[in-house]
Amino acid sequence: APPRPVRPGPPRRTDEESRASGVRFRRALSLLLMTLVAPGSAQLSVGNRRVGQLALRVVLGLVGAALLLLLLWFLFPDAVLRLLTWAPFLWLLRWVLVLLAVGWFLLLVDAWRLGRPMTLARDQRLKVFALTALLSTATVASLLVASSYVGSARDLVTGVFGVGTGEGVK
Question: Which of 2, 4, 7, 73 places its Cα 20 to 30 Å from the Cα of 58?
Fold first, then answer.
């Protein structure tokens, strides 16, 4: 039998190229996880600083508002209960959650872009894409479900106590 022609395989990577590829992969994963934990932090560190600062300010503002509401719950539980059952507040909260879902999704997609996926090896690129899809789906779905629950609570409050009372539960 005649000898088979030798087909050249994919070029072998050097140790230096393998290390550089691993560093790029870890960087891409880190940017995604940074965005999950502290939205805007990836943009602040390697992207558009203004977008990162805005996102972190929004997050810190919301955390501050939640902590203030918690403190007020211990001091004035009746007032906080009235606020949490006031239809206009629930309407506002619902739309804040929707806007947060959209914003977080955009930040995750931008973190994926900042990870420069086209410089990664194919299997690494697929892993980063899968993680981006998973994180985006989980965060957006969670916020949209919460928005739906707030909408249902608003519908319940307005159905039971009437529309336009402006008082909430007494």
Answer: 73
HSE-CB of 105 using CA atoms within 13 angstroms = 14
- Going from the C-alpha of 109 to that of each of 6, 42, 87, 99, 129, the distances in angstroms are 43, 11, 33, 15, 10
Find, among 18, 35, 9, 1, the residue nearest to 135 by Cα: 35
**Alpha carbon 96 to chain centroid, angstroms:** 14
Mind listing the pLDDT tens digit for each residue in 122-160? 899 999 999 999 999 999 999 999 999 999 999 998 888
Query: Hunting for tokens 């508002």 — which residue is that?
Result: 65
H helices present in the chain, as ranges = 15-37, 41-46, 49-75, 77-84, 87-114, 122-161
Token code pair at residue 98: 């929707």
Listed residue (51, 145, 63) closest to 98, CA to CA: 145
Q: What is the rounded CA–CA span in Å between residue 55 and residue 39?
A: 6
